[in-house]
Structures
1.
Amino acid sequence: MGLFDFIKGQFIDVIEWVDFSRDVLMWKFPDQDKEIKMGAQLTVRESQTAVLINEGKMADIFEAGRFELTTRNMPILTTVRSWKYGFESPFKVDVYYFNTRQFTDNKWGTPSPVTIPDSKFGQVEFRAFGTYNFRIKNYEVFFKELAGTNPVLTLSDIEGTLRGKLVDRFTEIVAEMAATDFSFVQMQANKSEFVQALMPRIAEYFAQFGIEVTDFSIQSITLPDELQEFLRKNTQMNMVGDMQRFMQFQASVALQKSAENPGGGSPGVDMGSGFAMGQMMMNAMNQQNQQKPENQAPAKEDIVKMLKDLGELKAAGVLTDEEFDAKKKELLARM
């Protein structure tokens, strides 16, 4: 190696970052204590931003493009170094690249149940899970608060911190809402509206780290088994309307489960219960007809109700197709 080659090797004249990964947020150009040649070529690709760091402080910022490093396009560094116009000597700075794309589908979740007062159930324990997207927004704040002197910062380096802070904020906001006339059922039924209320607060909190949360979602909210069972029973009650119809509904479900699992349980008991319930429903319809005066035909809404009950009996396997068709024909003739 000649003297000229040796001297040339001490200076950097091409600076770029080719990133083949999907989880690097920040990368320091490895200068190996070399100086940057004045007029060096700096390449910044789409979804990248390059920042010159002078003595630990952020100086000039370069967005996507190709730049020749001169005093003309390094105004901050030129001022800090008190360079005169036409300065041509090599100089020493650190070059950091920041990944500006969105980091999507990051998971979050409450590690333990969150207990909150509830206007409907008194007190509720629940877990919540979802995803969030973010990007680096303020490079100086991000560098100071999260990156520091690390030459490479990956998503795995900070995801625990981000997830923990997000869950803390989520829990705080839920607790604040729970202090009002708040019901877990409302949050479960209106997750989109709940997220819209959360987003400004979460965004404000993450701005302290130079991060912009671009999307936040609650994918699932889970309850203890006993509360889930209560809600399931309550839903069934709403579906069937009253206690008598609830009992009929339960009998039909038991009969269907017995048919689906002939090897387990007590099929004879289940079938007997189903037919008994079916007979009870048929008797109820007959009594309803008998209570009508002989010269008064059943009301249209009564017949519709009977047809619906017949459909449930057929679906449960209590009535055959022939029995259903015969009774249906008889009821339609009365309308």
2.
Amino acid sequence: MTRTIQQLFNLAGQTALVTGGSRGLGLQLAQALGEAGAKIMLVARKEHELKEAVLSLQARGIEAFYTVADCALEEDLKRAADLTLDRFGFVDILVNNAGAAWGAPAEDHPLSAWDKVMNLNVRGYFILSQYLGRKSMIPRKGGSIINVASIAGLGGNPKAMKTLAYNTSKAAVINFTKTLAGEWGVYNIRVNAICPGFFPSKMTAGTLEALGEERLRANAPLGRIGDDEDLKGLCVLYASDAGKHITGQWLAVDGGVSAITSG
């Protein structure tokens, strides 16, 4: 019998690990998965933020836990994955969200900052995806990996933005998503990316100030920037059986900005 749309989007009985899940976009994605029924493990560096995030999820009736880890470090990522597997037994959904940005003209961009951005935004995604693929998803013949990229990975920048490493890393995430999806489809593991536009967060505060939030709103076809709900629907689509025939894809959630700026 064909399932209802409510049944297709239901994540009851599933588990999700969300990196960078203590605040901002990561917490929004964790809320979405938890509200759809999944059990949540949050991973981030700052324990006080993680505690607050878990309490906020639990207040919504979500079963949520946390572990402290630096998502740029291989040993931290593997330890966080092992703790998650010890608690839940398996991981159905991995959200690679932890990220960093650095603003500097290309000619002055520090190599150490380039490495910091690449290690967290690309290398960390690979390490955790590979590890949980080997330990949980491949043996169980299924899973959903959701990579948070950015519309910054789709093209260049306004003149006021000097974020060469960040843009490069997010373009890499998009191709990482496509390539991994092509390889792991045989295991029924789906890999997709979300490309947010401008959302208010701690990481984007400087960019929003430099570019002017009102100007960004005015330049978007929908006349707004992202809010605390705008990523939820796509996240649950990717994670659930509602999106069981979707893999290797990216979708911009940006109020239409990429539609009028991409070639």
